[in-house]
Design a protein that fits this description.
The structure is a single chain. This protein has two domains: 223 residues, Jelly Rolls, CATH 2.60.120; 111 residues, Arc Repressor Mutant, subunit A, CATH 1.10.10. Helix content is 45%, strand content 22%. The protein is built from 14 helices and twelve strands. The strands form two sheets. It has an eight-stranded antiparallel beta sheet, sandwiched between helices. Helix 12 crosses helix 13. The radius of gyration is 21 Å and the shape is globular. The relative contact order is 0.10.
Length: 350
């Protein structure tokens, strides 16, 4: 990509234009008038793809839209901004969005309706209505690595019919809500992370790339449906422990700085005045993950940031994250993301 600077307003304007076109037309981006406005060196567009490379003055990374067919659009990115960013889009057509947030967090605001924070390490579901304006908020200096799948209403109905009858009813109830999985988001698996990495780092181009992405997307959707059928109902007794919310928040705050070597559960329970069982179950009910999973997630997200910054070698990153040997770090990273740290760094195009 070239070195020409692009302002945030410029990106937002073209993102708005192409985003609405992708989601409101059954055909691909035309090579007519719209194409003539996408001439900047940091922006590429063809019949099925729109990609933006962020200028260093804005941040680093990229995001792109791939129109896979009339029912499926993939929106993926690996980016970090130098300031808080708010990108807005006007929605022409009702659809559903499955967001896979590997790292970072994205706040979604539906103007005049509702706000929602898509959590990292989770799959969230968003029902978007025609005529709405949506703002995506990206916090400053946070590395966001994600894939979002935009699915037509008719396609989601087809997916629903693939499920057993009882699960069909459950999914339809969620689809009727604005953010159907809020509070019950599904954990990203190693398989999901591996597929996302492959989607973002395909070496193919043109129709072959579109075909490959579509294949990976179908695998992600199949895996999501299988997980959905096995997703247990939330425990209402745990979700109702409002009086302990502040205590769980204290644990969460403690782990912001002690995630590399967290205190033993016994010590944490003593600090906040809860027994270990209530602590474990309550933390999981509040944040959707165990304390150890939360710490591992923060460690791996920090690893991604250090790998992308390229300020340290693998051994130094391993030391920074508290691993006794770099091989331990490499194994943990591979198990979590499905790819070796050196390959993750090598595939970074920014």
């Amino acid at each position: 990509m070239g070195q020409r600077n692009i302002s945030l307003e410029h990106i937002n304007r073209h993102a708005q234009q192409v985003y609405t076109y992708f989601l409101s037309h059954g055909s691909y981006l035309p090579l007519g008038t719209e194409k003539q406005h996408l001439h900047d060196k940091n922006i590429t567009a063809n019949l099925s793809e729109f990609r933006v490379e962020l200028d260093r003055k804005i941040g680093h990374g990229y995001w792109q839209l791939n129109r896979l067919d009339p029912d499926i659009t993939s929106y993926s990115g690996r980016c970090s901004y130098n300031q808080n960013i708010d990108l807005s889009s006007y929605i022409n057509q009702e659809h559903f969005i499955l967001r896979y947030i590997v790292s970072g967090a994205i706040k979604i605001n539906v103007k005049g309706v509702q706000s929602y924070s898509a959590p990292q390490g989770k799959i969230s579901l968003h029902h978007v209505q025609a005529g709405e304006t949506i703002n995506l908020f990206y916090p400053k200096d946070m590395t966001c690595l994600f894939v979002a799948l935009y699915l037509s209403k008719s396609y989601m109905e087809k997916l629903c019919l693939l499920l057993p009858y009882e699960n069909q009813k459950k999914l339809r109830m969620l689809l009727d809500q604005r953010f159907g999985l809020e509070g019950h988001e599904i954990e990203l698996s190693a398989f999901d992370r591996s597929q996302i990495f492959q989607i973002q780092n395909l070496s193919a181009s043109g129709e072959l790339k579109r075909f490959a992405i579509k294949s990976k997307v179908r695998e992600l959707l199949s895996h999501w449906l299988m997980n959905f059928t096995q997703c247990p109902e939330p425990d209402p007794t745990l979700l109702a422990t409002v009086h302990n919310t502040e205590k769980f928040q204290k644990v969460f705050d403690l782990l912001k700085t002690h995630y590399i070597s967290p205190p033993p559960t016994k010590e944490i329970s003593r600090l906040i005045g809860l027994n270990q069982t209530t602590l474990r179950r309550g933390f999981r009910a509040t944040y959707g993950k165990s304390i150890s999973s939360h710490c591992l997630e923060k460690r791996m997200n920090r690893a991604c940031e250090l790998l992308l910054s390229k300020r340290m070698n693998i051994s130094q990153i391993s030391d920074d994250l508290g691993y006794a040997h770099s091989t331990n770090f490499t194994s943990a990273f591979k198990k979590y993301f499905g790819v070796l740290p050196k390959d993750f760094r090598a595939k970074d195009t920014v």
